[in-house]
TrEMBL record:
Catalysed reactions, as listed in the record: Hydrolyzes free adenine bases from 7,8-dihydro-8-oxoguanine:adenine mismatched double-stranded DNA, leaving an apurinic site
Co-factor(s): [4Fe-4S] cluster
HhH-GPD domain location: 35-186
Organism encoding this protein: Polaribacter reichenbachii
Single GO MF annotation: 4 iron, 4 sulfur cluster binding
SUPFAM superfamilies registered for this protein in UniProt: DNA-glycosylase, Nudix
Protein name stated in the entry: Adenine DNA glycosylase
Cited Pfam families: HHH (PF00633), HhH-GPD (PF00730), NUDIX_4 (PF14815)
Superkingdom assignment: Bacteria
Cofactor note: Binds 1 [4Fe-4S] cluster.
EC numbers, comma separated: 3.2.2.31
Job of this protein: Adenine glycosylase active on G-A mispairs. MutY also corrects error-prone DNA synthesis past GO lesions which are due to the oxidatively damaged form of guanine: 7,8-dihydro-8-oxoguanine (8-oxo-dGTP).
Major enzyme class: hydrolase
DNA sequence: AAGGCGGGGCT
DNA sequence: AGCCCAGCCTT
């Protein structure tokens, strides 16, 4: 049996039962694919169920406020996915009359959809033989064929796409694509792959040459940046606080946070209240206490955030317009959601 | 071509 | 601690 047939045979016996496998509706497939970008199935699953029940059609999603969409996305990460999802939903609803584009060439034009996602939707929903290349596919192909081209080099990206395209079963492209991804996720795992039960034991180059541990090759490593965050959790006498939206380029675009003073190291109370930024925010008398005695380290893939939450009690602040009971309506980073869970446990 | 963007699970 | 996950966008 050739590669494709062996793979599909494996898939018939080992595929995972997932809700988006029961449909070819491009709206649902699109939703699942966006959610699963750089995200494990286990993490994305509950979000998929929540989105499909709250927004059964693309029109429902298009009608929602962006803030509502972000709130529902809260905790899933890479929030530009949610903003692009919403943008594209409005485009499909308003300009395309709710009809999803049906060819790879048209699909890839949509915001938030790249080569992988366009291939997935075109193959699964419209039977177009366009091969997906995600992290699973890089791993499976680099091992099976013994290819050491770095998967994140431009040469590697082209090479693996071309190879996958020659392997795809043109009579069932969607099944082939899902099969190779499931195979990578379940069998040909990054660590401790299940080579002893593998249908490719006699043809896998990496297994024969003992290269399983070294393939695939990835060339760059990400640098981690350390940052020191001081969130000012305002409480006025009339039970209001300040939240502001993060704009611009950095992390958590579109999410809300307490006023933030960033420093180049952990600072104490005196250093905080004597800083220009603090004085600008609170010229009047305040009572301040540090909520977390030990710094909270929140790790993103590329930044480590050393965080202190300062409880700032003051008589009144003209900036404080949000009622405490309304905080939960705002989309916030997990770092802040975790704080709120401890600070006002009754709410959760 | 390179860097930025979350959060969580596994080793 | 480091790596990876149904990647994409910007510069």
């Amino acid at each position: 049996m050739n590669f494709s047939n062996t793979l599909i045979y494996w898939y018939l016996q080992n595929s995972r039962e997932l809700p988006w496998r029961k449909t070819k509706n491009p709206y649902y497939i699109w939703l699942s694919e966006i959610m699963l970008q750089q995200t494990r199935v286990a993490q994305g699953l509950s979000y998929y169920l929540k989105f499909t029940s709250t927004f059964p059609t693309v029109f429902d999603l298009a009608k929602a406020d962006e803030s509502t969409v972000l709130k529902m996305w809260q905790g899933l990460g890479y929030y530009s996915r949610a903003r692009n999802l919403h943008f594209t939903a409005k485009q499909i609803a308003n300009e395309f009359n709710g009809e999803f584009p049906s060819t790879f060439k048209e699909i890839i034009k949509l915001k938030g959809i790249g080569d992988y996602t366009a291939s997935a939707i075109a193959s699964i929903c419209f039977d177009e033989p366009t091969a997906v290349v995600d992290g699973n596919v890089y791993r499976v192909l680099s091992r099976y064929f013994g290819i050491d081209t770095p998967i994140n080099s431009s040469a590697g990206i082209k090479e693996f796409k071309k190879l996958a395209q020659t392997l795809i079963d043109e009579s069932q492209p969607g099944t082939f694509n899902q099969a190779i991804m499931d195979f990578g996720a379940i069998q040909c795992k990054p660590k401790k792959p299940l080579c002893m039960f593998c249908p490719f034991t006699d043809s896998c180059v990496a297994l024969q040459k003992n290269l399983i541990e070294t393939l695939p090759v990835k060339e760059k490593k990400i640098k981690v940046r350390n940052r020191y965050f001081n969130f000012l959790v305002i409480k006025t006498k009339d039970n209001k606080t300040i939240l502001s939206e993060r704009k611009g380029k950095g992390i958590w675009q579109g999410l809300y946070q307490f006023p933030l003073i960033e420093s180049d190291k952990n600072i104490n109370k005196n250093e905080l209240i004597s800083s220009d930024e603090f004085i600008a925010l609170f010229p009047d008398e305040t009572t301040i206490s540090l909520f977390n005695k030990k710094e909270i380290v929140h790790k993103l893939s590329h930044q480590h955030l050393y965080t202190q939450f300062w409880i700032v009690e003051t008589e009144y602040s003209s900036e404080a317009k949000i009622n405490w009971s309304d905080i939960e309506k705002y989309p916030v980073p997990v770092l802040i959601a975790n704080f709120l869970k401890e600070y006002q446990p009754k709410k959760y």
